[in-house]
Amino acid sequence: MVIACGAPAARAPNAQRPVDERRASEVMVRTFKGAHIDPDTNRAVTVLGGRSVHLEVAAAQRKFGVAFLTREQQAALADVLPKRAPDSDALIVVPGDEEGVHVLVLFERDYMHDDLSGDDHTTTNIAAELKLERDVRDFLRKAIEDQWP
Asked: Is residue 3 part of a domain?
């Protein structure tokens, strides 16, 4: 009888998926409220290039907000969005056609998680949501500091 010990078989990586758009909107609303800015949902603005962008959350009575783009929406707006290195975490803020409009553009692919059962997580849903909250909070801090309308 021969018994051999060897390394365990390689496992496929856990499937990644983005934070759900509805949940992302909830995190953004909470972050706006935490910054003492009244949130407004489901607003559309026109950005440079004449393209309409849906804002998940915007500042009520103000001219700035956040667009959370799915892969399909990103592809549709590719010609008007600034290019960003694939491995970059830099935030992209685009101006609107109207004076004073600022739109934080977030890509769903930047907020991925693999919350499967077990201990082999690479990124949890909590970590993805905290990153989303941080990015929105940084944008709001800039809006406040620069006194955006």
From this structure: no
